[in-house]
Design a protein that fits this description.
binds beta-D-galactopyranose; 12 strands; 48% helix; D-Maltodextrin-Binding Protein, domain 2; 2 domains
Length: 427
Amino acid sequence: MRVNRRMTATVATAAVLGLTLAACGGDTGGEGGGEGGGSQVEVFTWWAAGSEKAGLDALVGEFENQHPDIEFVNGAVAGGAGSAAKDLLQTRLQAQDPPDTFQAHAGMELQDYIDAAQIEDVSDLYDEFGLTDAFPADLVDRLSTEDGAIYSVPSNVHRANVVWANPTVLEENDIDPEAQYADLDAWIADLEKLEAAGVTPLSVGTTWTQVHLLETVLLAGLGAEAYTGLWDGSTDWEGDEVTSALEDFETLMNFTNDDRDGLDWPEATQMVIDGNAAFNVMGDWAVAAFEEQDKELGTDFTATPVPGTDGTFDFLADSFTLPVGAPDAEGAKAWLETVGSLEGQVAFNKAKGSIPARTDADPAEFSEYQQGAIESFANDTIVSSLAHGAATPVATLNAFSDATSKFTTGASDLAGYQSELAAAAAG
Ligand code: GAL
């Protein structure tokens, strides 16, 4: 069934009644197919394959424990960082054909859906599921409007500014795998060495992974405060600091694999796993790919902050929404309950490489890498990811991506690139 906005209140009321009945031992699956009665839930994500799917599967496993009567329907659309999913989602939302719940990044990306009245306030569910104090206040702020409405339930927190390296490749080229680079220049000196030895120094993939690299280079060059100023207008996009960060980005891109535009993140990271590249900059979903292949931190791979960004946690969080007109709003609410639960967050994050958004999970349940990330998230300066929806609306990110693709395929020069980024940021 498809509902329009005017029908939503009725559906929502029915769904709340349904949940109450369920809590009293009633049958959540009682109403049958697609009538908003909690018989199924279509979950829209971009976790379609590999270690990302393994993360989703772990969450689904816990969902099935908690809600055995509700059928999980996988609406995943392949393409890292939602590179294909977000456009398709927008088409569906505009056609009044929403999934029951969809993945959205905390921050400005979520704000887009709020502004377009495409998602519901779920603050009642925070009360009902006891989530009000479960998450850090800063994170809840990124899911909320000023009037106290909360629009999604976060599943995790990822760190974007991580360099993954293959220690064997480094050792073979007389580079100390334990070296901590103070800044990008020190790192670039070793990348030059690798290049001269005929090794791919740095692997990267298609446009969104290049934007991901760009954001970490901006962070390294500008520092946390000026980087944050890029998103609130207080840092000048046309300024010299940005020019020199873009020069560094250009230098780094010159050290990357030629086939980059045909690769998504799993293939680019796999080059490091296989010893076909020395370094890769990627968010910490990458740790799940290493671990899935039985690689051990310290021995088979290293994970360190992007040079020049130590002490800063480049943040993003996935969260799940209740779309306006969700065909099975009760199924969606059950999904949100599992996403927000301690058990759901532990199961999901152990497999996904991220850390729980909840503050009450026991760090001892997680890998060595994740324990470090938990500590860093608690103590470091937090900044917002560009490539993963925290810093800008989707339209701005799309304009950044277009400008970046032009630059890295040689269709614009550095000055042109900088002007296009400035124009994108100005909206
Ligand atoms: C991010 C998302 C992560 C991970 C990554 C690669 O945008 O937040 O959970 O899936 O994309 O696809």
